[in-house]
Amino acid sequence: MVPAPTSTTPSVAVPKSATPQLSAPQSPTAQSLAAQSSASQPSAVHLGAAERDLRLDLFRGLALWLIFLDHIPENIVSWITIRNYGFSDATEIFIFISGYTAAFVYGRTMGERGFVLASARILRRAWQIYVAHIFLFTIFMAEIAYVAATFENPLYAEEMNILDFLKQPDVTIFQALLLKFKPVNMDVLPLYIVLLLLFPPMLYLLLRAPNLALAGSAVVYALAWKLDFNLPAYPNGVWFFNPFAWQLLFVFGAWCALGGAHRLRHVMQSRAVLVVAIAYLLFAFAITLTWHVESLERFVPTWLADWMYPIDKTNLDVLRFAHFLALAAVTVRFVPRDWPGLRSPILRPAIVCGQHSLEIFCLGVFLAFAGQFIIAETSGGPLLQTAVSVLGIILMVATAYLISWYKTMEGRNPRSRVKPPDADLAGGEA
Amino acid sequence: MRVITGILASIVLVGAAIAAAEPQSDCDVPEWLIPAQSNLNRVTSAIKDHHRLDVSVIGSRSSALSGPDGARFSYPAQLEQTLRERLPGNDIKVTAHIASGQTTAEMAADLPKVLAEDRPALAIWQAGTVDALRGVEPEDFRVSLDQGLDAIAAGNADALMMNMQYSPRTESMLSVAPFADVMHWVAEQRGVVLFDRLAIMRYWSDEGTFDLYAATTGYAMARHVHECIGRALAAQIIDAAHLDADKMQTTR
After folding, report:
1. What span, in angstroms and rounded, lies between the C-alpha atoms of A115 and A299?
2. What pTM was computed for the model?
């Protein structure tokens, strides 16, 4: 396996206090904001614990946009996405925030109503995501079948072999149902499903001994690197996102939600951490610059390149994890929880998208397929790529507002109040 | 004065070299896509000392063309022709070994045999597509590349790697990027020349040189693409081996 860089082991400061702490600190502003956004879910207010941090919705919404843009190959607009300016990308943000909200929502359920009910809800959520994934797979199959039927070019005789799986639909569809066969760009939801399936016991531990749970997660991560284990894929190979590596980010998010962020606040507010984080972000930026400007490559010393490359996305390279931590540290510093901008109408669309992440994520994957199809059919240039990107984001936002409206309407229906709080609690999803 | 004369002379020489290097074609490749980062010492000495160059191309199906007279229009044949044109007076032979459907690991295992048979000064190794098709792990792919490059070095040949084709229509199904990254990294680490077919074809697509999205059953475009690849490949070899045609003539 690739030599794992050793000097930047996950720099998670583990504070001494191990008291299970369900509620993160709250400011009145944040509380009123969350209450406002969760008007449709009275139970959230009634529980009275910490309210939702709108920054989570904002950054998850932005991550969903970036994932959409990155999933359209040959998209000039994808130059603005963060993967071009550092090691980590929107996936890290998405998984971290998903872990955070999962712990926030189900942690409370587990604390108040017990392990069994919380686990049942987590598994129901995993099932919903599974169904969404299979739905996307169907759309993907339709696209592939179309290409297979219409596209031919002797130049690509070899590449067209990828369509061979259509000759064995029995095997292919079965492997897809087992989450072993996953088309390009359809790896995130299966990862999410596995993370949720393993989450109940992890959450149980996180509520009792959060630091122990986090340490356990780090050990699994290290073992995945050391012993090189991953889930098998079909027809060959392994999962693109190794769940045993990526769980670290998910659990870290959960740990932060259950009081870890509060315990880390002194670390996050320290000047030294800020300086280190900014320095690291600049370093990552400089390195990524050499990927795009070939002539700069020679400025990367050989010893550094040998030590650093390849930066492994499959196993969540430590460099990527550290980059995410640095980004988070800088963000937390400059975007406080009660930042007035969170209420500005400009950021509202991203926040609304972040509050309905599963639907918007799926829509984004579908729109990326569709957009790519349009670009391919018309051999479109940068102008069309820009139009497709902008239109896609507008559709994502419009759909998110529609879902919000729909949920508000349902929430006003007295009968639906009987419904138990779901993952959609407080206007967001786990 | 001598300095100025020297500078002037070099400008003239460089100008002549550029004029000679620029093929009269519609598929030029900008310099930044053909970085002259490495030396092909064995190629240089084969031409300078023996006026002879044997090249072996080892690749999968995208190194060949089907259809009538496919071999004659595929890039290995085009490479041979261009090298003969640009290095006149030398005995040049390009042999293609097409291993249809073979992964990099399988090709790496066969390399010693090919090298023993051909005894080439240069081995061009096209890899990656089959591995992407079969979902080989990028890390295993890297190990196979290393093994193959060791075999080429042991066979006393210079190595040149070629990555996969740019295929926009299959991009949503076939993810070649991780394999391209590995090849780039291995090339960098070992100081091996990489012919970046992926980037070059993408450049042609972006520039409108070829409509690589187009569906066609005809061979015209495929042949034209191979011709252009053969020429670009010849240019990179001549560049990396410092065999600029004009300088060669002056040294002889």
Report:
1. 55
2. 0.80
